[in-house]
Amino acid sequence: MAIETFTWATQRGEAPEITYRVRESKFGSGYRQTVGDGPNNKEDSYPVTVFATKAQTLKIMEFFDRHGGAKAFLWTTPLGELGLFTCKDPKPTPVGGGRFKVSATLERAFHP
């Protein structure tokens, strides 16, 4: 089965959460040794928002339901980097006039 791509246009302006996992050992005289924790030590997540009609919102939620918070999908970050992501927290909120706001956090994954 092919990996699906999240293609809906997201609102820009939210700051991503980017951290690097490191291991650190401290020694006497203030000396410390630091090394990256594994080959994929960069952890990044992106809060996204999509404004959509009810029909579009149902399709977005079906997409997230198919992936169930664990199965990765492709998405292009605001910097234009294509990567694998998961989403555990989609929130569809009615905003009136038959429109919805879908808020979610897309977290980097390293396997499909």
TrEMBL record:
<protein>
    <submittedName>
        <fullName>Phage tail protein</fullName>
    </submittedName>
</protein>
<dbReference type="InterPro" id="IPR010265">
    <property type="entry name" value="Phage_lambda_TipM"/>
</dbReference>
<dbReference type="Pfam" id="PF05939">
    <property type="entry name" value="Phage_min_tail"/>
</dbReference>
